[in-house]
Write a structure and sequence with these properties.
Two copies of one chain form a homodimer. By secondary structure, chain A is α+β, with helices and mostly antiparallel strands. Chain A has helices spanning 35-43, 81-86, 128-142, 155-159, 221-224, and strands spanning 31-32, 47-54, 57-64, 66-68, 71-77, 91-103, 111-121, 124-125, 161-167, 170-176, 194-202, 206-207. Chain A is built from five helices and twelve strands.
C-alpha cells in the first residue's frame, strides 16, 4: 500500500492559515504558511497548474509562471479561454516539486518527498503600462541580460498578449522531506529503506543551427552556467 | 515577451478529439489524441494534478498516480475531502513533464518543451476486492519485487485507504519538442538560440540508518539501478 500522500490521520490545526480553504488538514504537520517558503517554492518553478471551471466543467491547465514581489504572474494569448475565465472567478494555482520516492519498511508508510504550494484567489489583468516590465522581469528571471540581446516584442506581439497576476496572500505550502516514518515495530524488517531522490536537472544546451549571424565567441552566462 | 505557451494563433481543428472539452485550440498542431502517447506520458509520471470544485471554490491538488490498462489510479485516506468530492463530480487530471526552455531570437517566440496530458471524466471508487491488487500494481510499477519484501498492509491500513480510478478515454495530449520557431526574418539576430534541457533526474539513493535488521548484501535491483 504505497504512498500515504494524503493518508495520514494525524490532523492538527494550524491557526496561522490565512483562510479556511488554505487550512491544511491531511498531514498538517507538513504544512507551512511562511511567505519565505512560498516565495522559494514559486521561484524554483517554471510552471504551475491552474484549476478553474466553465460550462464544460473543471479544468487543470499547466502554464508558465514567475514571481515579482507578492504576486505570481502568468501570460498568454488574448484569446485564451483560460485567461478570460480567470478574470471572472476565483481559482487555485498549484506548484509541486517532486524531490524523491520514500521507500519505507511497511507498504503503508511509503511516501514522496515534495515541496508544494497552493494559492487561492482571483487573477487581475496587468495594465498596458505594466505589461512590458512584467514580461521583461520574466525573461530576466530565466536568462539575466537576454532581453537586451533578442528582438524585443513589437506592437502587434505585445497587443496580442495578456499578462495576469494573483496575490501570493491566500496560500499554503506543504513539504515532506527526510527518511521514511516507519513505526518502531517495523524497523527490524530486512528490506532496503530510504529515499530515492528525484530533481529537475539541467541537460547540455542544444544550440539551434538555423541562425545566420556570427555569434560572440563567449556564450551568454545563462547558457554557459546552465550545466555546472 | 517570453513563452508563447498559449499564445499561438494557429488554430486548427483536430476532428479526432474525443469530446468538445478535449479539443485543443491553442497551438493545435501540438495536440494528439493517440492512446499510446497518453499512456507513455502517464507512465512517466509519479504524480498528477487534479482540478475539482466544492463550496470553497476550485482546487488543484497534486497526488500520486499510476496506470493499469486504460485507467489512471489515485489513492488516499477515506477521509480525504478530495476523494469524497471526486466521487460526485467530473474533474480534470493533468500530467505535465517539462523538457526544456526554448530560447528564441525573438522574445515573443520563447517557449517551453513539454509533454502534457489532460484527462476528463469522473473517478470511480475501486471495490474492496480490487483495492489490494491495484495498490500492489502501484508498488510493482515503482519498485518491481518490493511488495514481497516489505510488510504488507494490515486490515486496518487497507480499511483506511480509498483507491479510485478514472478512464483514460476522454483525454488530450499536447507536446512541444525541438528548437525555437523563429521567423526567417529573425534568423540573423546575433544571439544564442536553442534549447536549455530540463528533465526529472535520479539522485544517489539515501539509505535510512534506522533499520535494525541485517540486509542482504545485494541491493534490490530498483535501488541498484536507480542511478545508471
Amino acid at each position: 500500500m504505497p504512498f500515504r500522500y494524503f493518508i495520514d490521520s494525524d490532523i492538527e490545526t494550524m491557526p496561522t492559515a490565512p483562510s479556511s480553504r488554505t487550512q491544511v488538514k491531511r498531514i498538517a504537520r507538513n504544512a507551512s504558511y511562511d511567505p519565505a517558503l512560498l516565495h522559494a517554492i514559486v521561484d524554483a518553478a517554471y510552471l504551475c497548474h491552474v484549476a478553474f471551471a466553465d460550462a464544460q466543467g473543471n479544468h487543470c491547465i499547466p502554464t508558465a509562471c514567475w514571481r515579482s514581489g507578492d504576486y505570481l504572474y502568468i501570460h498568454g494569448s488574448n484569446g485564451s479561454r483560460m485567461l478570460k475565465a480567470l478574470a471572472a472567478q476565483d481559482c487555485c494555482v498549484t506548484i509541486t516539486h517532486l524531490d524523491g520516492l520514500v521507500m519505507a519498511r511497511a507498504a503503508f508508510n511509503h511516501s514522496m518527498n515534495y515541496r508544494s504550494a497552493m494559492v487561492y484567489g482571483r487573477f487581475e489583468t496587468v495594465g498596458e503600462a505594466d505589461k512590458r516590465p512584467a514580461l521583461e522581469a520574466f525573461m530576466e528571471h530565466l536568462a539575466p541580460g537576454r532581453q537586451a540581446q533578442v528582438r524585443a516584442g513589437n506592437e502587434q506581439e505585445y497587443a496580442a498578449t495578456t499578462v495576469m497576476r494573483i496575490a501570493l496572500l491566500e496560500a499554503a505550502c506543504k513539504v515532506r522531506s527526510g527518511p521514511p516514518n516507519d513505526a518502531a515495530a517495523d524497523l527490524g524488517i530486512a528490506v532496503w529503506a530510504g529515499v530515492l531522490p528525484l530533481a529537475l536537472a539541467r541537460g547540455a544546451p542544444q544550440p539551434d543551427a538555423r541562425g545566420t549571424a556570427e555569434l560572440p565567441a563567449q556564450l551568454p552566462d545563462y547558457v554557459h552556467a546552465w550545466q555546472d
